[in-house]
Design a protein that fits this description.
With about 725 residues, this protein is an alpha/beta fold. It folds into two domains: about 45-180 and about 445-620, HUPs (Rossmann fold); about 200-435, Valyl/Leucyl/Isoleucyl-tRNA synthetase, editing domain (Isoleucyl-tRNA Synthetase, domain 2), CATH 3.90.740.10. The strands form nine sheets. It has a six-stranded mixed beta sheet with strand order 12-10-11-8-7-15, with helices on both faces. It has a four-stranded antiparallel beta sheet with strand order 6-5-16-18. Strands 21-20-23-22 form a four-stranded antiparallel beta sheet. Helix 1 packs antiparallel against helix 2, helix 8 (about 165-180) crosses helix 22 and helix 23 packs across helix 24 (about 650-660). It binds one RNA strand of 74 nucleotides through helix 16 and helix 25.
RNA sequence: GGGCCAAUAGCUCAAUCAGGUUGAGCGCUCGGCUGAUAACCGGGAGGCUCUCGGUUCAAAUCCGAGUUGGCCCA
């Protein structure tokens, strides 16, 4: 409610006897406009104690939903409360405007199918389209927030696409580099073959999908096996012997490099008979019966028993050696090794391992010093290294691989209809593939202790969010892959010499526009330069006779918002506010941001500055449907705040949002309760009207009512008669 | 599959951390008022505290196992 009621009351006096939220709200908006209420409030607090609130930037790919409405309403309430207490509050709203989700929306709009369409359209044009789209969405969000009655600095939001903000990301990244926390490395990543880029784990959506399920025999090399282990009995060695593996991804078999076993488990070699032929199969002891049944063997006898440990070093031939002549064959390849990820109770107890694809396989492969063989390109199509399969999309190759294995007699069994939890790209729903590629990392695992210690410097409401959820996540967090092979993002500011050794000391990491203008060979105006790919890709640096070119990748969009505490203050361009205010006093977001923004900020800020960038965190819940289901725009399961406003008004909606749920708890939206809030406000309305029936109606009171009048009317409602109240007023 | 959080009256929540007669508002119901009237005032009913076990003199509360829902991770 406005502090000075007089002008407003004149306006309200004209409305009818019933509380009409729309009328009241419009009256308030007009009043705010007339007296520049927001500007004046801020001006009056200018000399107050500072309070550095940082707005978590909503992503500009759609309209405001109930969750963002709740979030902004909570922020609005608390900022108003702080201002009532005299604080000079930083209230710059922000918008997260880069990233793959916007690219895919623009691709849809332009009817593009893949990266080649973008290249044909022109990178710069595409970036312009993305910018226009993001700005358009921003306008929608911003007008919604204003319409909800939120007071923030709408004239000057921070945008992650502005040069001064992008520079803040460069600066942070440069600092991390100076601390030795940036490196390039191969990693097994989730690759979206359509978007042709790495996808973060939290961007992978999982669903049950039917997959082929095959049992494959890998032929053991006789002599080597006997040599490697005394355990292999002569009897077992007297006929063809095989390791039996099971997989749901036949397309990864070309990349097979080793077979993993559980060192402590007993494996049996069984002589099995089928169609009058005999062969020896190695399977984990608990699984023998089941596997042989699946393979439709008629009879078997156990002829050998060895532990996984004893099998280590056994050599085998690649089952697709003819089709994939370049298969992994270096030092130590095509042997049996132990690995933690083997479960002897699962399938055959032997695991086909391809360090060029799977994450665990990759890590174990690295430990063992094995060659990383990945014959698949960023588009999910086999490369030349895949021999006969070159040019085929990996999932389409499953049938070919199965047929080839079968023709050689290596296919023990093939079943269909097996369902596994498969990852899909969150934006385009394309099935992801695991491949190993070169990526850029901030090696947060090197500063794990510092991260965990910094958590202690923040207060969380509720506290369990920090001590359970957040700490667990930070403890387990892997190195942060910050590179994306896309267009609409902050370009990674790394310039490399032509024959880069891999040593980060030989790389140039640029920290801001000033430095960029100074170091590049081209003429660049630091004031006006745009930092997107279209501009910086063409810039080169020549120092000591060596020419450096920029790596083509852009940052993971999570890195953008991770620098918000200094990006909000336009640091490093403007240093004064940063020195006075940083770190943030408070951030306030929903619990999904534990692994999102709460984490990315801790990671980035600790890497760059060794400190946590916020003092207090308020974690609120999710806005769910009245029956408790999660809202989903794509499934059409949602409550639209605009509809709520239309039915009940802004104040009732806000009152409802502010009245529900304990800290950290989800809210179930309730139409009933929102209506109830409207009724409660109606009571207030009636109280005000009641007062007026007793007051002179011909003129407005001479004395402007101050805050004390509210106290007075409170005590009046609880006691004295209308008459005495009226006389009190005079 | 794992982690965290939740479940209490028809609805939205409180009481749970630190065990001691389960509360509030709305709704419902009965009555009053009838120049605030889609309002106001007074009375009342309404709970195996999600389920099953355990600890205790005593459990909504502590412990264990489930169910359902939410978020996150695999």
């Amino acid at each position: 409610m406005p502090a000075r009621i007089t002008p407003g009351m004149e306006r309200f006096a004209a409305v009818d006897d019933q509380y009409d939220p729309e009328d009241v709200e419009n009256g308030v908006f007009e009043y705010w406009d007339d007296v520049d209420a927001y500007e004046q409030t801020k001006a009056h607090r200018e000399d107050g104690e500072t309070y550095f609130f940082v707005d978590g930037p909503p992503y500009t790919s759609g309209a405001a939903h109930m969750g963002t409405t709740w979030n902004k309403t909570l922020k609005d309430l608390y900022i108003r409360y702080l201002r009532m207490r005299g604080y000079d509050v930083t209230d710059r709203p922000g918008y997260d405007m880069h990233g793959l989700p916007i690219e895919t929306k623009v691709e849809e709009r332009l009817d593009f199918e893949n990266k080649k369409d973008i290249e044909a359209f022109g990178e710069e044009n595409f970036i312009d389209e993305c910018k226009a789209f993001a700005e358009e969405q921003l306008e929608g969000l911003q007008s919604d927030f204003q319409d909800f009655g939120v007071w923030m600095d709408w004239d000057d939001p921070y945008k992650t696409v502005n040069p001064e903000y992008m520079e803040a990301a460069w600066w942070g990244f440069q600092r991390a580099h100076e601390r030795g926390l940036v490196e390039q490395g191969m990693r097994s990543i989730n690759q979206c073959p359509r978007c042709e880029t790495a996808i973060a784990n939290n961007e992978v959506e999982r669903s049950e999908v039917g997959k082929p399920s095959i049992y494959v025999k890998f032929p053991l090399r006789e002599a080597d096996r006997r040599e490697a282990s005394d355990g292999a009995s002569d009897e077992a060695a007297s006929s063809e012997a095989y390791l039996v593996i099971w997989t749901t991804t036949p397309w990864t078999i070309p990349a097979n490099t080793f077979v993993a076993v559980d060192g402590d488990v007993t494996y049996q070699g069984v002589r099995a008979q089928k169609d009058g032929e005999e062969e020896v199969l190695y399977v984990a002891e608990p699984r023998v019966e089941e596997v042989l049944k699946t393979g439709r063997y008629e009879d078997y006898e156990v002829v050998d028993e060895v532990t996984g440990e004893e099998m280590t070093g056994w050599k085998y031939d690649h089952p697709l050696a003819d089709e994939v002549p370049d298969h992994a064959s270096g030092e130590g390849a095509l042997q049996v090794y132990t690995a933690d990820y083997v479960d002897a109770e699962d399938q055959t107890g032997l695991v086909h391992s391809a360090p060029g694809h799977g994450e665990e396989d990759f890590e174990r492969g690295q430990e063992l010093g094995l060659e990383i063989f990945c014959p698949v390109g960023s588009d999910g199509v086999y490369t030349e290294q895949a021999g006969a399969y070159e040019g085929t999309f990996v999932r389409d190759a499953n049938d070919d691989v199965i047929a080839d294995l079968d023709s050689k007699g290596y296919l023990l069994a093939s079943e269909s209809g097996y369902t596994v939890n498969e990852g899909h790209c969150w934006r385009c729903d394309t099935g992801i593939v695991r491949i190993v590629t070169d990526q850029w990392f901030i090696t947060v695992t090197d500063i794990k202790d510092e991260l965990l210690a910094n958590i202690e410097d923040s207060e969380w409401y509720p506290q369990w969010a920090r001590d359970n959820r957040f700490r667990d996540f930070v403890e387990d967090a892997p190195d942060w892959n910050v590179s994306r092979q896309r267009y609409w993002g902050i370009p990674i500011p790394i310039w490399l010499p032509e024959d880069w050794s891999g040593d980060m000391d030989d790389a140039i990491v640029v920290g801001d526009r000033e430095e960029l203008a100074e170091r590049v060979d081209q003429d660049v105006d630091p004031e006006s330069v745009d930092l997107h790919k279209g501009t910086v890709d063409d810039l080169t640096i020549t120092e000591d006779g060596t020419t450096y070119t920029r790596v083509p990748d852009v940052f993971d969009v999570w890195l953008d918002s991770s620098v918000a505490t200094w990006g909000t203050l336009d640091y490093p361009q403007e240093a004064e506010a940063f020195e006075e205010l940083w770190p943030a006093d408070l951030i306030m977001e929903a619990h999904d941001q534990t692994r999102g923004w709460f984490w990315s900020q801790l990671g980035m800020s600790t890497a760059a500055m060794g400190e946590i960038p916020y003092k207090q965190v308020l974690m609120h819940g999710y806005a769910n449907m009245p029956d408790g289901r999660g809202m989903s725009k794509s499934k059409g399961i949602l409550v639209d705040p605009h509809e709520v406003i239309e039915k009940h008004g802004r104040d009732p909606m806000r009152l409802f949002l502010l009245s529900v749920s304990a800290q950290g708890q989800d809210m179930n939206f309730s139409w009933e309760e929102t209506q109830e809030m409207q009724r409660r406000l109606n009571i207030l309305w009636n109280v005000a009207r009641f007062c007026r029936t007793c007051a002179p109606t011909t003129s407005t009171p001479k004395r402007p009512r101050s805050r004390t009048s509210a106290t007075t009317s409170n005590s009046l409602t609880s006691g004295s008669s209308p008459a005495s109240r009226a006389s009190n007023r005079r």
